[in-house]
Amino acid sequence: xxxxxxxLVRRCLECKPTDRQPIVMHFGPYAARLQQLSYQKxxxxxxxxxNSLQSAQRLFGCDGLIILADLTMEAEACGCRVEWRDDRPxxxxxxxxGDAPDDIAVAGIGTFGRLAVAVEAARRLEAVIxxxxxxxxxxxxxxxxxxxxxxxxxxxxxxEESESALRALDLASQVTVHVAKxxxxxxxxxxxxFDPLLxxxxxxxxxxxxxxxxxxxxxxxxxxARILLQTEISDSSGIEGLVGLGAAGLLLEGGAxxxxxxxxxxxxxxxxxxxxxxxxxxxxxxxLEQTVAAxxxxxxxxxxxxxxxDIPRSAPPExxxxxxxxxxxxxx
Length: 332
What we know:
This protein is an alpha/beta fold and 332 residues long. It has a single domain (5-328), classed as TIM Barrel (Alpha-Beta Barrel), CATH 3.20.20.210. 47% of the residues lie in helices and 14% in strands. The chain contains 14 helices and 10 strands. It has helices spanning 5-13, 29-34, 39-43, 46-60, 73-77, 113-129, 142-150, 154-159, 163-185, 203-222, 239-244, 258-267, 285-296, 317-328, and strands spanning 23-26, 64-67, 82-85, 88-91, 134-140, 190-194, 226-232, 249-253, 271-275, 306-308. The strands form 2 sheets. Strands 1-2-5-6-7-8-9-10 form an 8-stranded parallel beta barrel, surrounded by 7 helices. A two-stranded antiparallel ribbon has the order 3-4. Helix 10 (203-222) links the parallel strand 6 (190-194) and strand 7 (226-232). Helix 9 packs parallel to helix 10 (203-222). It is globular, with a radius of gyration of 19 Å. The protein starts with a helix and ends with a helix.
């Protein structure tokens, strides 16, 4: 009897054998485009968001559905002002910048703005398709969130271990845990922690961030949940540190050597995923099969999952269909 997509993704994150690589997709603005709606309209309405994501999942048949990896949602809920430019949200103010009071009311964060919309949409999706499809709500990681809260100077300040930067990181970590618990308490047991800035840190600030992530890992363990950590890394220098964080799965973007990551993660019983470059689905369909075949042969592990995370709004649906079909096909 075949297992469900939800169980397939879970088994993958537990490094258990599967008959194929599961595919995880993040539609976000692309799901809005399929409904001929603006992303701003969809991201601010729980009904539209849940319906558009469910329709996209049904249309393309992915195993895992990432629920709104939008790095500005938690920032907005914490008091950052957001401006919409070309139907994309951009953070334009930082409540902990400069000499601003270094405090944020963490309790109730999930009831504000678009974050509240995403939480409610996740609740509805869990009730409707959660038994069959792996739902992975995205939570902004503490380093990236702290950068929004503190402002452009945050990374340099963290390098110097300034009190203000460490306080911003601590507050951001509290927010990340609080939001994660909201999803876990509704019965969702898979999460994506999306933290692009984490993979760019030098050794000293990375150690500070790692200590702040341990609370989140402990909370996930309490709920028997699995966390997929998504970040960006340009070379192999930070791989050991990222693997050592202990997330159930890693999804690295930016050119990390996948074979090296796979070896190190495999020793720790961690699953490694790879993000299919979004540009691959913007070309001609007849070129996609050869490209994906070469990409799949570049070093993915037997337990790896594949992800399509930033689908260009201009991508033809037939290209996304082709990518999903090729990525879920069994390798011969």
